[in-house]
Recover the amino acids of this structure.
């Protein structure tokens, strides 16, 4: 399903739903960031997705990382809570979702990078290479918060 992110766009469609989403920021021993290139909008992102019934937020983050990248991980902390009503995501089925996402720090525990139905590319990206990638502003915000190593989580 295709999606379009609207971020602080006065012409954005009105939200008609909200769902809990999670994402995970993972760095390898060289400081490179685990990134995917999404199949639904062709943008680079940290791995993440929607919470499913019967799982915790941390379990959802671990599952999404595994599904999208093949990497196994363990949640290590919270980077931020993102609930900007001026960020809506429109899907081609008519759903327009208001952002509500929890971003976690996570540590790799195993696995090997592989593509999936949701990721056409999986890569470990050096911090100085991020500007060469097309990354949505909301994901750049999470990456910047993660790299800043703040003592308490960001929240809106």
């Amino acid at each position: 399903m295709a999606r379009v992110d609207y971020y602080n766009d006065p012409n954005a469609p009105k939200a008609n739903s909200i769902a809990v989403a999670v994402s995970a920021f993972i760095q390898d021993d060289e400081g490179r960031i685990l990134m995917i290139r999404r199949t639904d909008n062709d943008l680079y992102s940290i791995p993440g997705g929607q919470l499913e019934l019967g799982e915790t937020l941390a379990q959802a983050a671990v599952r999404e990382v595994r599904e999208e990248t093949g990497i196994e991980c363990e949640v290590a902390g919270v980077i931020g809570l993102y609930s900007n009503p001026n960020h809506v995501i429109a899907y081609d089925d008519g759903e327009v979702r208001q952002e509500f996402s929890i971003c976690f720090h996570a540590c790799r525990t195993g696995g090997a990078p592989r593509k999936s139905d949701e990721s056409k590319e999986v890569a470990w990206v050096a911090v100085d290479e991020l500007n060469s990638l097309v990354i949505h502003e909301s994901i750049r915000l999470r990456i910047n918060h993660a790299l800043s190593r703040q003592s308490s989580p960001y929240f809106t």
Remarks:
- The longest strand covers residues 71-82.
